[in-house]
Amino acid sequence: MPDTQNWWSTIAPAAPEMYLATVICVILLIDVFAGGSRRPRLTGTLTLIALAVGAWVTLEYGSVGGRTPLFGGLYIADPLALVLKLSALLYVAVALLYSRPALARRGTGGEYHVLALTALLGIYVLASAGNLLSLYIGVELLALSLYAMIAFDRESPVSAEAAMKYFVLGSIASGMLLYGISLVYGLTGTLALDEVALRLTAEPSLGMVAGVAFVVVAIAFKFGAVPFHMWVPDVYHGAPTTVTLFLSTAPKFAYFALAYRLLSQGLDGISPTWTQMLAIIGVLSLIVGNVFAIAQANLKRMLAYSAIANVGFILLGFTTGTAAGYSAALYYTIVYVLATLGAFGVILLASRRGFEADELEDYKGLQARDPMLALWMMMMMFSTAGVPPFVGFWAKLAIFEALWQVGAVWLIVIGALAAVVGAFYYIRVVKLMYFDDAPSAPRGEASGALRLVLGVNALATLALGVVPASLFDLCKAVLG
Amino acid sequence: MTPNLLIAIPLLPLVAALIAGLAGRRIGRAASAGVTILAVGISCALSLYVAKLIFLDGVPASDITVYTWLVSDGIRFQVGFLVDRLTALMMVVVNFVSFCVHVYTIGYMRDDDGFQRFFSYISLFTFSMLMLVMANNFMQLFFGWEAVGLVSYLLIGFWFTRPSAIHANLKAFIVNRIGDFAFVLGIAGVVYWTHSLDYADLFALAPSLETATFALSAGTTVPALTLIALCLFVGAMAKSAQVPLHVWLPDSMEGPTPISALIHAATMVTAGIFMVARMSPLYEFSGAALTFVLVIGGTTAFFMGLLGVVSNDIKRVIAYSTLSQLGYMTVALGASAYSAAIFHLMTHAFFKALLFLAAGSVIIGMHHEQDMRKMGGLAKYMPVTAVTCWIGALALIGTPFFSGFYSKDALIEAVGESQRAGATYAYWCVTAGVFVTALYTFRLLFMTFHGKERFGHDETHGDEHAHGHGHGGAPHESPWVVTVPLIALAIPSIVIGYLTIGPLLFGGAFGDAIFVREANDVIGELGHEYHGPVAFALHGLTAPTFWLALAGVVTAWYLYLKSPGTPARIAARFAGLYSMLVNKFYFDWFNETLVAPFTRLVGKVLWKGGDQLLIDGAFVNGSAKFVGWAAAKGRRIQTGYLYTYAFWMVIGLAVLLGWFLIGA
After folding, report:
1. Nearest CB to B661: which of A209, A230, A469?
2. What residue in B sits closest to A217 (Cα-Cα)?
3. Which of B67, B68, B620, B660 is the best mutation test for A, with the most CBs of A within 10 A?
4. Taking CB atoms and an 8 Å limit, are B649 and A213 in contact across chains?
5. Are the beta carbons of A173 and B649 separated by less than 8 Å?
6. Cβ(B236)–Cβ(B275) below 8 Å
7. For B566, left (φ over 0), alpha (ψ -120 to 50), or beta?
8. Could you tell me if A165 lies within 8 Å of chain B, comparing CB atoms?
């Protein structure tokens, strides 16, 4: 008879994933059999409850002192995974909250929530991946959920087009990732990431460099970095705003995990190769993202280019190849996604039936129509632009500080210039809201409770900026 | 003292200021006034409690940090409170005067549209000033320093539709900018040599830095501490209106009178004095800086007093008096008699606030007439104002047993004891200043409250509307909200010196808060001859200063009551001297015809050439054009076709592979 106590303790840290997989099945079944007009609402509420319990499970079982490998090294539980999972879970929950009115308007089914949960499971798997295979499974689980979510609005040709583009290009990227993985596997003879790290030679072979290049391209595609970014504006713009919100927030943590586990942990020994590649990609992203964002008339499209530019900053953190750089990148990811969440939240809350509120024009004179929403939007824009005392300022500073430590002055200069260009279009939104005359646009129909959540979200960008130490110290601690 | 107690003291006025400022229109006048007065009242009570703990119960000084904003290169940027004996005294002075002014404002600003705004500002000022005096590091000191400057700017220009008010607040702002620039340099010096912003670190390191030098250029070095001390003092010169950075203070009288009392007499302008006293462990190691302080202070004390004699605006006379008295305090600082400076600061805060508020009461009574030539004989219409104003005046000229006597006499004697270079000059300045002080003070009293009534009596009250508020009705006593603060301030103006001279000057009440080197301890020298406040006052009767003050009073009596035609004859006789005084020693002329055009020229060259041509033209507009062009061109790459996207991905991969495989 097996010793159950002992057996459980060997897999307990993976309880969050098991829990998620279980509730996905349960909610799917309830959704199928519940029927009736209340079905979507019921599924939505159940999902939120499941996420709340999930937060507890993650915290309870995922908190491990140090690095704990499970299932023969396929799965790693460590503090970094915990932080990534909790952040992703929180952002998914808030994103679903913001989406409630828009989903209710559309009256579509509960599968949306189930897809969101599978995507979250993908993020969880990726965050804890300790092996090239589990890494790939996480990537695909997340990607497949996202393809389906983008195509969710079946009647909209724009959504279908966006989903198709993302799917085809994503498949190419997956192919490249697999090819890169196969090269790494072929040259090291192992799939376990810590084994890979041990077997690397200081001077990489040509095959290994090629493998790294393929892997980097896949990562850059996932993040949406230049020149693998082409899908980003089309998908952000074409997808329903609820999906864009989802897409632009929680998955970023998964991609952070992908880059960190694969490059910083697995391929640490040959970091000069991939840091240089990332530097090129990061600089291009900063320039292209910021410059093109200026020319956009659609807010979602502008935020898409803003995402490209901000990914440039995250990648700059990786180019240092130091723990300080990774923690700065993690900090930047958390902080950037927080403001993005709020910005898309404002779009969702400002919209109503027949009014998407996604053109920049729609924000003219928002201050007069809905002063509170305008205030929250202003805070998000200032945070993303990096205006003190908002937290975005500290995020940029952290990246620059990490770059300074490794002497990458030219990257700092480019980053600072890009931030100046970026400030222009963020602050333009503020100008439109506060200084332009209001056309008679309708007011959003969101409930008071949601506006409160958005307010908390906005105030968080301020509070974290006034007291920046705790979050930054956390990022340092988990990557130390 | 718990941190919460100390945090509450500055925070209460801030919260009240926010409520009155942001929601003032919604909650109305009474609630705005109520909430700010309540907050400042509680804050005042708490600071009295802190003072009791420190002075009576002997609780040790506390130096706590409540919030760390960031740590950069090992330098901590913090909010923290250093509450010792010096701070506790300042907190009480600031809060008490502020509280009186808050109450007084209800009456003074009754008919003003900006009622709520005004209360919000003065509460905000109280917060800023408390942050300044309670700081335990230079960053917070600088924050408070700038914040009081900002509120002062806002309040001088409170009536922003008057061109003269706008001119005055801009002047105050610009002159303070000069001082603040030096002040920041001083702080930079502190950070450079001590690698910290905390007072404690500077004070601990100051003795070891005495020999440190700073190379200005090859071959020219200056002692580091002198450089820091001078830079900080230039900041104090602007804030505390010392020659030649004093020009803004007389003009600041454009603001409402409660402000003149609170900010431009009792508290903010003394921030510079406080700062130097707080930095005594630094200044004590720089004799050169203290000599500079002495000379500047002496010059201000005497020459600015002279200007009070020729001014006809009741508030300006008191403003020049403030300048002169600030000079007295500065002289005391220069003589290492820091405790005497703070002692005079405290008594001055009470009697000068009293004088200003009394002047304000006169101005209300006279329907906003400020010219003393149109007053006279007001004592019978406004008895309370007249009596309290007399008390303030007697304190100001240093009548024995009044508060001003103790502080001023001790100060002058301390300067007399000092052996520092420049002390003799400063001593003559402050001694001669006693005569001038008495002259202009009693000139003000006689011209305002006594002698012939020179205002036009308006018998036909129906005419009032035709003249607006100009000269309507006979003068009348002010309402109780105005007179009660007068009385509340009159009491300390009489007794505070008598009660506190012993402990503050000779009893070591400041403890470790003020540091004086053995060799410079002039107050200690005085202490050997001190035998209680009564003996001190009786001794004062035989001192030359008393007779000088008496001479000033008699002169004023002769010139302005007995023979009112004489001043004009004197002015005609000494026309050159008179015009120099009327033109305020040509400081404004110098600034406006020489400094300002030159600065504007430099500004214009930089603006046209540097800013418009280079920065705006080439950088800003050029880069904007380029970005716009690039974005427009670049959009064509984003075709929307799937194969283009895939093509660019492959190109990207090829470039990466090519770069590294060929490079390798």
Report:
1. A209
2. B653
3. B660
4. no
5. yes
6. yes
7. alpha
8. yes
Q: How many CA atoms lie within 13 A of B131 on its CB side?
A: 25
Longest CA–CA span in chain A (Å) reads 76
Whether residues A295 and B660 touch (CB distance < 8 A) is answered with no
CA-to-CA distance for B542 and B553, rounded, in angstroms?
17
Chain-chain contact of A217 with B640 (C-beta, under 8 angstroms): no
Number of domains in chain A: 1
- Determine the pLDDT at residue B232: 94
Q: Cβ atoms within 10 A of the Cβ of B488, count? A: 19
Q: Return the pLDDT at A236.
A: 94
Domain encompassing residue A285: 2-479
Amino acid at B220: T
Structure tokens at B585: 């020693």
The model's pLDDT over B386-416, given as tens digits with 9 standing for 90+, comes to 999 999 999 999 888 899 899 998 899 889 8
What residues in A contact B638, CB-CB < 8 Å? 230, 233, 292
Gap between the Cα atoms of B481 and B478, Å rounded: 8
> Which candidate, B347, B176, B189, places its Cα nearest to that of B249?
B176
Partners of residue B657 in chain A, C-beta under 8 Å: 210, 213
Q: Mean pLDDT across the stretch B245-274? A: 88
The stretches of A128-205 forming alpha helices (DSSP H) are 132-150, 157-188, 193-199
| Tens digits of residue pLDDT in B551-565 | 999 998 888 888 888
Beta bridge partners of B75: B72
Non-local (6+) Cβ contacts of B44 within 8 A are B92, B95, B96, B98, B99
Residue-wise pLDDT for B139-162, tens only, equals: 999 999 999 999 999 999 898 888
> Which pLDDT tens digit goes with each residue over B332-347?
999 998 989 999 999 9
Distance CA B603, CA B624 (A): 25
Could you tell me whether strands A68-70 and A75-77 are parallel, antiparallel, or unpaired per DSSP bridges?
A: antiparallel
Is B470 a residue whose pLDDT tops 50? no
Specify the pLDDT at position B499: 86
Return residues 51-80 of B near A (CB < 8 Å). Answer: 67-70
Lowest mean pLDDT among A16-20, A126-130, A336-340, B590-594: B590-594
The residue among A165, A230, A277 with the most chain B CBs within 10 A of its CB, best to mutate, is A230
A-B C-beta contacts closer than 8 Å: 80
Specify the residue for token string 């079944």: A29
Q: Indicate yes or no: CB of A172 within 8 angstroms of CB of B649.
A: yes
Residues 6+ apart with CB under 8 A from B12: B39, B40, B42, B43
Helix boundaries (H) for B503-613: 522-528, 533-542, 544-557, 566-573, 575-582, 587-590, 596-605
Q: What is the pLDDT of residues B496-528, one digit of tens each?
A: 888 888 888 877 777 778 888 888 888 888 888
pLDDT band, very low/low/confident/very high, at B627 (cuts 50, 70, 90): confident
Please state, in angstroms and rounded to a whole number, the distance separating the CA atoms of residues B128 and B146: 9
Q: How confident is the model at residue A325 (pLDDT cuts 50, 70, 90)?
A: very high
DSSP states of B421-438: TTHHHHHHHHHHHHHHHH
- Mean pLDDT for all residues in chain A: 90
- ipTM score for this prediction: 0.88
Residue ranges in B52-84 assigned as alpha helix (H): none
Is residue A54 within 8 angstroms of chain B, CB to CB?
no
A53: tokens are: 């319990």
Contact at 8 Å (CB) between B482 and B361? yes
Percentage of chain B with pLDDT > 70?
A: 97
Comparing C-alpha atoms, which of A218, A330, A341, A328 is closest to residue A274? A218
Residue at token pair 């907050």? B39
Do the beta carbons of residue B592 and residue B247 sit within 8 Å? no
Consecutive H or E run containing A69: strand A68-70
